[in-house]
C-alpha cells in the first residue's frame, strides 16, 4: 500500500550523437526490445514509458534528436533534459571526435550533468576505427560513464546503459545524507562480496 502511494520520479533523457550512430535504433531497442534497421531520420521523437529502477518507479521521457537539428534546438533540448546519452559508432572516427563538442555544449548550459558515453556498433569489429581504450579514456576525461555495446545484437546492454544513466540521475536527486547512506550500503555490500569471494578462494 505504501509502495502504491510512492510518487513517480520524472526523468528526462536526451540522446545525442553524430549521423548514423544508432540513436533511433537505441531508443526503439530500449522501448520495444526490438532492433529495426531503418528509420525516418527527419523527425525528433519523444518516447515515454515507466520503468522500475531500484524500487523507484521512473516516469521516463527520452528525446531522440536527428543529427541535422539546429544548434538552437540542441541547446533548448539540453536545457530540457536531466541526463544525456552521448553516442558514437566504433566504425566512424568522426562520430567519436564529435563527442567533446557535444559535451562542451552540455557543460555550457548545465552544471554536474549525469552523462553516459555509448560506443555503439560493437558487432562491426572488422570495421572498428575507435578502440575500447580510447572510449574509456575519453569518458574518464569528460567525467562520463562508459558502455561499449551493439544495439543490433544486445537489448540487455542497451537497457543496462539507460539504467546506469537513470541511476546517476536518481543518485543526484537524493538528499545528501541519503546519498551518503546509499554509498555506505553499496560499500558494505561490496565488502561482504569481497570477503565471501576471499573465503571461497581459501
Ligand atoms: N551493425 C549495426 N548497425 C547498427 C547498429 N545500431 C544502428 N545501426 C544501423 O545504423 C544506421 C543508423 O541508425 P539510426 O538509429 O537511424 O541512427 P541515428 O543516429 O538515429 O541517425 P540520424 O537520424 O542520422 O541522426 C541504421 O542503418 C541502423 O540499422 C548496431 O549496433 N550495429
TrEMBL record:
The top of its lineage is: Eukaryota, Metazoa, Chordata, Craniata, Vertebrata
**Organism per entry:** Fundulus heteroclitus
Q: Which InterPro entries match?
A: P-loop_NTPase (IPR027417), Ras-related_GTPase (IPR051065), Small_GTP-bd (IPR005225), Small_GTPase (IPR001806)
Q: What is the name of this protein?
A: small monomeric GTPase
* NCBIfam families to which the protein is assigned, alphabetical: small_GTP
Keywords (A to Z) from UniProt: GTP-binding, Hydrolase, Nucleotide-binding
Top-tier EC class: hydrolase
Record's signal peptide: none
The record's SUPFAM superfamilies line, in alphabetical order, gives: P-loop containing nucleoside triphosphate hydrolases
Which Pfam families does the protein's record reference?
Ras (PF00071)
EC number(s) per entry: 3.6.5.2
**Sorted alphabetically, which PROSITE patterns does this protein's record hold?**
RAB (PS51419), RAS (PS51421)
Classify the source by domain of life: Eukaryota
